[in-house]
UniProtKB/TrEMBL annotation:
Top-level enzyme category: transferase
Database matches in InterPro entries: cNMP-bd_dom (IPR000595), cNMP-bd_dom_sf (IPR018490), HATPase_C_sf (IPR036890), HATPase_dom (IPR003594), His_kinase_dom (IPR005467), RmlC-like_jellyroll (IPR014710), Sig_transdc_His_kin-like_C (IPR004358)
Alphabetized PROSITE patterns for the sequence: CNMP_BINDING_3, HIS_KIN
Coiled-coil segments: none
Species assigned in the record: Tunturiibacter lichenicola
Superkingdom classification of source: Bacteria
Transferase recorded as keyword: yes
Catalytic activity field: ATP + protein L-histidine = ADP + protein N-phospho-L-histidine
Protein's name in the database: histidine kinase
EC number from the UniProt entry: 2.7.13.3
Length: 499
């Protein structure tokens, strides 16, 4: 019997086609014996008789193509059963560059008997030279009569294909969700990390400036009485500023800060302080009152005032930079802690889950999308913990919150609610979006059903929600009308009821 490698000599000699040339019949058809020899390499056909192999070789249509030949196009009617005798066919969707399916030599693919396949789900093209036999759909009844075992062979192949495509789609959905999560976290981490980096980079220069100002102040050899008054002024000023480092960020009006800075520049000019524009910004960010500046001018005198004010301003700048570094690193630490809680890292699979905390941890992952969203939280403080797979429950909240934000285009009201009811815990996720069309409401939990644009969703989010909730012996329902859509999740409180 001829080996697979020897089939290269069976392909007609064709000139190398340009990219995207269609695969088609060979210039010189192969003999029936050569085709039968090729069909014997098709694994799903193992065990056929010589007559059955000959039937396929006789009734089938031969097709060949060189590298990058188009075998079929996405959306075209699927009407042939394909036996790939040599080469490889890759199927890709236009909206994704990832390979959806790969058919290699020895495969039985295309439209099979009993399949509901109507059109090709992607574009198939050859990788290297390809040689295949096509059996048209019109011959399926005759084929099943002539080869009775083909019914079972085709059903087994269909089941394998469904499992493989489902696995690939689920993997793609997970990668898509991971990509969105990574993008959200990257955005959240970038702000504090950038602030800490900028402050740390400027801190060295400012410390040097502060040291020089202190050196100049010390070099003036002030009398002990003046030095003591200056120290007392510093202590009083810090007390008056009321814990400057604890002021809420962003509590001051930027326009008011600008006006205050201009007033400080005028005060510094009036007191003959050089380069007032370098000192005023640091003072404007504090609550240092003008009467304190007047008092400082009286304490140190006009000759010392420029250096004293510059020293105070440099000291405040150093403190603000150090404070920014500390606050930024605390923010990063809080995000990392939320990520660990969200993923239940280093913890057992089954946890006693605080549903309110679980929802809040998930919300952290969406902070970058919540700027124009009013978030309302209504958590029952007396709700017991739920025995559950914590990381999987967070996948449920992630899918529901993401769908809610998508429905509202990141603008509107998001409401999260938890409460107890008998032996069940209830979680509700509300959004103020346009609602779900009643005609498709019964289909939203179907695998691969999506209303999102191509490339934005695979239709596995709500299927995953239902699967995980069912795994916990719970229930998921939805109520929707324009302006109010609510997904309700009910989970058993009793561990024995869940597992």
């Amino acid at each position: 019997m001829a080996t697979v490698d020897s089939y290269e000599s069976l392909l007609p000699t064709l000139p190398v086609p340009p990219a995207d040339q269609l695969a088609g019949p060979p210039a010189q058809p192969s003999s029936i014996s050569d085709i039968v020899a090729g069909l014997r390499t098709i694994t799903p056909l193992d065990g056929l008789t010589e007559e059955e192999y000959t039937w396929i070789a006789t009734k089938g249509s031969e097709r060949v193509g060189q590298d990058r030949s188009i075998v079929f196009r996405e959306g075209e009617p699927a009407c042939n059963m394909n036996f790939i005798l040599q080469g490889e066919v890759q199927v890709r969707r236009r909206r994704s560059n990832a390979a959806l399916f790969i058919g290699r030599a020895g495969s039985m693919t295309g439209k099979l008997p009993f399949s509901r396949m109507k059109t090709y789900g992607g574009e198939g093209y050859s990788v290297g030279s390809v040689w295949a036999i096509d059996v048209p759909e019109s011959l399926f009844p005759e084929m099943l009569t002539a080869i009775p075992s083909m019914a079972q062979r085709c059903v087994s192949q269909l089941l394998d294909r469904v499992r493989e495509v489902t696995r690939m789609e689920q993997q793609s959905e997970k990668l898509n969700a991971l990509g969105k999560l990574a993008a959200n976290l990257s955005h959240e981490l970038n702000n504090p990390a950038s602030a800490a980096q900028r402050s740390a980079a400027s801190l060295f220069g400012e410390l040097k400036e502060y040291g020089e100002q202190k050196y100049k102040l010390g070099n003036m050899c002030l009398p002990d009485e003046t030095t003591e008054k200056y120290k007392a002024w510093i202590k009083n000023a810090r007390a008056r500023m009321s814990a400057y480092s604890n002021l809420p960020k962003g509590s001051q009006n930027p326009l008011a800060n600008t006006d205050r800075e201009e007033m400080l520049v005028e005060w510094l000019n009036a007191h003959n302080v050089p380069n007032p524009w370098t000192i005023a910004p640091a003072l404007s960010e504090t609550t240092l009152a003008f009467d304190l500046l007047d008092e400082l001018a009286e304490v140190v005198g006009p000759e010392v005032l420029p250096i004293a004010v510059a020293t105070v301003a440099s000291s405040l700048r150093v403190e603000r930079m150090a404070e920014t570094v500390v606050d930024s690193t605390v923010r990063i630490f809080d995000l990392i802690s939320a990520i660990k809680d969200y993923s239940y890292m280093d913890q057992a699979p089954i946890q006693d889950v605080d549903l309110a905390q679980s929802l809040e941890n998930t919300l952290v992952m969406f902070n970058s999308r919540l700027r124009n969203v009013q978030v309302e939280l209504e958590f029952d403080p007396n709700l017991e913990t739920v025995s559950a797979y914590g990381s999987e429950l967070n996948q449920v909240w992630t899918a529901l919150i993401e769908n809610a934000l998508d429905a509202m285009n990141d603008r509107g009201t998001l409401r999260l609610l938890t409460k107890g009811g008998g032996q069940m815990a209830l979680v509700e996720v509300w959004d103020s979006g346009p609602g779900i069309d009643p005609e498709i409401r019964s289909r939203i939990f179907e695998p691969f059903f999506t209303t999102k644009a191509p490339g934005r969703g695979l239709g596995l989010g709500l299927d995953t929600v239902q699967r995980i909730v069912n795994k916990h012996s719970g229930f998921v329902t939805v109520e929707s009308k324009p302006g109010a859509t609510c997904f309700q999740i009910r989970l058993p409180l009793d561990r024995l009821q869940a597992y």
